[in-house]
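Appendix B, record 7
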Amino acid sequence: MPDLSRSRHALVLRGFLAALAFGVPVAAAAPAVAASIPIPEPDQEEYLIARAPVLVPKPTWQLPVDDYHITGTFGASSSLWSSTHTGLDFATDEGTPIHAVTDGVVVSVEYDGSYGNKTVIRMDDGTEVWYCHQSETTVTSGQSVDSGDEIGAVGSTGNVTGPHLHLEFRTADEPQDPDAVLREHGLDP
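Structure tokens (predicted):
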């Protein structure tokens, strides 16, 4: 004859886990489950209770500005730059809002010579995202930001020929190609 207490236990446990998966409050499901599950004695076979995995969403990514055209690419060389260009330039109207491309923590907001007004945001993996030439900034050091949060406005501070956002990604202080980084996260600049 089958062990009905074990079968009932399995059914109740499955029901309890299903209730959790569909958002039924644990307090509502717990009394029925607790009343129907026998507590094993120490010398009896142990029961395993599965925990539902905790899903941590990955940060979303978005382009930093709307209505732009690219005027400078990573690795370009010309008289416009003192060395090889280390970012991606998004030309758009002065004052256009700049949005964080992904989640992070603001590590600095300052004027930085040819970069002009610059905001640096550090991602969880240590990569820094530089937003340069801003006309204004709207975040402060130590502030957490989410993808899409407004962090400043496009300007023409520093060494520029017109209003644009110079976007730069740096890993271990080495510039990375922003076009490749954005494409890796499903964006087409």
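Remarks on this record: The domain at 69-184 is CATH 2.70.70.10 (Glucose Permease (Domain IIA)). Residues 118 and 132 are 4 Å apart (CA to CA).
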